[in-house]
């Protein structure tokens, strides 16, 4: 988002088109940084397919995908007047150990385009939240290596409910069984279990008006940061220094140091499994208690005694 907003400001007279998978269209448009989305599916975790670009050639094409020649070549095939890419002849060096926000803003700075990595906030959603003020717990993740065990999530949910908090469980498409497993283990069903993947507008409103978001290293954690909602995020194979939230007392990233793992692996990462239930519950309760007396950025949360 910070990089896209820098591009928007740098090219006020241009139409900004973002090539990405169509499932992220609503999120992209919510940033206010792009005019439209060009639906481009990416096979596996590869480069989005641009072969069906309708033309004419872009005035400027910017590669925000990676450092390899594949994404650069996909854009070059569109014959833009100007191409900005890490892999280009005048491209800046790839910062392999930088946070994603800092990396892409530095990339644009190298081409004279200012971008602020702190420019992360989304506007308030127009859709009402289905559970205003609730603690949102999202146990799923895109890969097994980033998925904390269901029984541990359930234990934290029981702790939060015992402290007087309403807890809502969410899951994306294909995660219904996982969400129901956590619900059954925590002893709660009904309206507080949101399965099937909420439409983006409802999901965004749910996160924006939550008192806290607990999740693994997945997209919902970034959405919490974008809405200024307090969060506890569990990291395993990849350090939060690379993919985590910006330093803030509102966002706690729990991680056990060690050599990097496979972020796309099938089984829970060893570092993730070293995070204990008590640590997670304590982090959540600390943020919900607002022990520092800081003003809230969302609905008031119940204090825990």
Explained architecture:
The chain is α/β, with parallel strands linked by helices. It has helices at residues 2-10, 25-30, 69-76, 100-110, 150-162, 176-186, 200-208, 219-226, 240-243, 270-273, 277-289; strands at 17-20, 36-39, 60-62, 82-84, 135-138, 167-170, 193-194, 212-216, 231-234, 251-254. A six-stranded parallel β-sheet has the order 7-6-5-8-9-10, with helices on both faces. Strands 1-2 form a two-stranded parallel sheet. A two-stranded parallel ribbon has the order 3-4. Helix 5 (150-162) runs parallel beside helix 11 (277-289). It is globular and about 60 Å long. The model is unreliable at 291-305 (pLDDT under 50).
Let me know the largest β-sheet: 6 strands, parallel
Number of helices: 11
pLDDT < 50 runs, ≥5 residues? 291-305
Q: Give Rg in angstroms.
A: 20 Å
Task: Give the % helix.
Answer: 25-40%
Assembly category: single chain
Average of pLDDT: 90
What string, H for helix and E for strand, traces the elements in order?
HEHEEHEHEHEHEHEHEHEHH
Based on DSSP secondary structure assignment, what is the total number of beta strands?
10
The coarse silhouette is globular
Share of β-strand residues: 5-15%
Spatial strand order of the main sheet: 7-6-5-8-9-10
Terminal Cα span: 38 Å
Pfam families: Glyco_transf_9
Keywords: Glycosyltransferase, Transferase
Protein name: Glycosyltransferase family 9 protein
Write a concise keyword list for the protein shown above.
305 residues; alpha/beta; 6-stranded parallel β-sheet; two-stranded parallel sheet; 11 helices; 10 strands; 31% helix
SSE topology sketch:
Blueprint: H1 2-10, E1 17-20, H2 25-30, E2 36-39, E3 60-62, H3 69-76, E4 82-84, H4 100-110, E5 135-138, H5 150-162, E6 167-170, H6 176-186, E7 193-194, H7 200-208, E8 212-216, H8 219-226, E9 231-234, H9 240-243, E10 251-254, H10 270-273, H11 277-289
Parallel strand pairs: 1-2, 3-4, 5-6, 5-8, 6-7, 8-9, 9-10
């Amino acid at each position: 988002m910070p990089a896209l907003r820098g591009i928007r400001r740098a090219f006020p007279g241009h139409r900004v088109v973002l090539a990405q998978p169509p499932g992220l269209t609503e999120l992209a448009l919510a940033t206010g940084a792009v005019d439209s989305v060009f639906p481009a599916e990416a096979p596996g975790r590869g480069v989005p397919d641009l072969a069906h670009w309708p033309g004419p050639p872009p005035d400027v094409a910017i590669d925000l995908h990676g450092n390899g020649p594949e994404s650069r070549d996909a854009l070059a095939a569109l014959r833009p007047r100007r191409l900005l890419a890490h892999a280009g002849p005048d491209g800046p060096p790839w910062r392999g150990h930088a946070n994603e926000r800092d990396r892409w803003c530095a990339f644009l700075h190298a081409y004279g385009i200012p971008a602020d990595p702190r420019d992360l906030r989304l506007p308030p959603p127009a859709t009402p939240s289905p559970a205003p003020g609730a603690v949102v717990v999202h146990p799923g993740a895109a890969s097994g290596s980033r998925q904390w065990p269901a029984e541990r999530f359930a234990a934290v949910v029981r702790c939060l409910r015992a402290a007087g908090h309403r807890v809502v469980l969410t899951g994306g498409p294909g995660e219904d069984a996982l969400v129901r497993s956590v619900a059954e283990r925590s002893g709660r069903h009904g309206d507080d279990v949101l399965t099937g993947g909420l439409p983006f507008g409802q999901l965004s409103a749910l996160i924006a008006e939550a008192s806290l978001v607990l999740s693994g290293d997945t997209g919902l954690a970034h959405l919490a940061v974008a809405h200024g909602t307090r969060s506890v995020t569990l990291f395993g194979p990849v350090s939060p220094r690379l993919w985590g939230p910006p330093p803030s007392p509102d966002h706690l990233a729990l991680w056990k140091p060690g050599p990097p793992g496979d972020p796309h692996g099938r089984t829970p990462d060893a570092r993730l499994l070293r995070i204990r239930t008590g640590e997670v519950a304590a982090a959540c309760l600390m943020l919900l208690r607002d022990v520092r007396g800081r003003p809230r950025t969302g609905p008031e949360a119940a204090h825990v005694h």
